[in-house]
């Protein structure tokens, strides 16, 4: 068994034990364990940030075996709400907090501090059997608001388009709505998916489907389209995202209550370290 796999299994056991015995409260908890002091934090939120946070936590806990990091997805809105309610140490988000969320946080005595940890490129994905290779912003908007419903209207085959979307708690849902749909509502028959992974899986199995995912979720089971915002079609490659030529690039965030301290600070600093940045690249995102 590899060092990383062993560390991950140990971590799962620790997290399970904390849950069973009710010791997993919020904050940089400490518990005497022989000669070492165990520390734990809870991170929750964006499914886009989720694979990055998981990979970073695995690496961090290899170097810091006395620490436990529990990571939960659910969407940016879910993580931000948990931070506002004092339930987590770090909220993961693929969008900036809204003014109303900041007000709610301050009402609860929470002072949200934003940390940009990486950059992502939103990828438009279709089934590999779909002959369409690129779409304009205008075409994407028309598909998602319901003005285009057949692939033959955008150069594809005579097939009804199956439109996939994340749920409204997702930061990617909000970002796509603002950037591509210009604030318009999603079409009524869009199929809502609870996670980014669910979109990837559905697109891989349905030749008529279209969805949007973070670039780290791209694999051989889906095809990423080039998108054109008016300056020519650009693919979601690392070069295009880092140069700013790809039009759907965005920052990814951690939020804490006030300036981070203790284990939360150590973890955030690790993400921006040389090892952390290597992990960001490995996952498929780009260091901030």
Automatic annotation (TrEMBL):
- Report the superkingdom from the record: Archaea
- The answer to whether keyword Nucleus applies is no
Q: What is any Pfam family matched here?
A: PBP_like_2
| MF (Gene Ontology) | phosphate ion binding
Q: Where is the PBP domain?
A: 33-274
InterPro entries, per the entry: PBP_domain (IPR024370), Phos-bd (IPR011862), Phosphate_ABC_transporter (IPR050811)
Q: Which UniProt keywords apply?
A: Signal, Transport
NCBIfam families, alphabetically? ptsS_2
Q: What's this protein's name?
A: Phosphate ABC transporter substrate-binding protein, PhoT family
């Amino acid at each position: 068994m590899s060092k990383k796999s062993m560390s991950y299994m140990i971590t799962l056991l620790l997290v399970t034990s904390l849950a069973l015995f009710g010791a997993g409260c919020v904050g940089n908890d400490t518990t005497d364990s022989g000669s070492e002091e165990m520390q734990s934090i809870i991170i929750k939120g964006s499914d886009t940030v989720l694979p990055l946070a998981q990979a970073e936590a695995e690496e961090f806990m290899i170097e810091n075996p006395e620490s436990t990091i529990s990571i939960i997805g659910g969407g940016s809105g879910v993580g931000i709400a948990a931070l506002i309610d004092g339930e987590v140490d770090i909220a993961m988000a693929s969008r900036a907090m809204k003014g109303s969320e900041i007000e709610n946080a301050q009402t609860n005595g929470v002072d949200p501090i934003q940390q940009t940890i990486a950059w992502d490129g939103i990828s438009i994905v279709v089934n590999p059997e779909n002959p369409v290779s690129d779409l304009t912003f205008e075409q994407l908007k028309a598909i998602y608001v319901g003005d285009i419903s057949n692939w033959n209207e955008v150069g594809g085959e005579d097939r009804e388009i199956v439109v996939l979307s994340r749920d409204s708690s997702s930061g990617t849902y909000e970002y796509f709505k603002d950037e591509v749909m210009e604030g318009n509502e999603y079409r009524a028959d869009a199929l809502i998916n609870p996670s980014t992974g669910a979109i990837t899986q559905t697109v891989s199995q349905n030749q008529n489907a279209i969805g949007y995912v973070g670039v780290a979720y791209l694999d051989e089971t889906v095809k990423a389209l080039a998108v054109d915002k008016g300056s020519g079609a650009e693919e979601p490659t690392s070069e295009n995202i880092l140069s700013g030529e790809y039009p759907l690039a965005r920052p990814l965030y951690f939020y804490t209550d006030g300036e981070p301290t203790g284990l939360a600070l150590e973890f955030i600093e690790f993400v921006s370290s040389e090892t952390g940045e290597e992990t960001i690249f490995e996952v498929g995102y780009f260091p901030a």
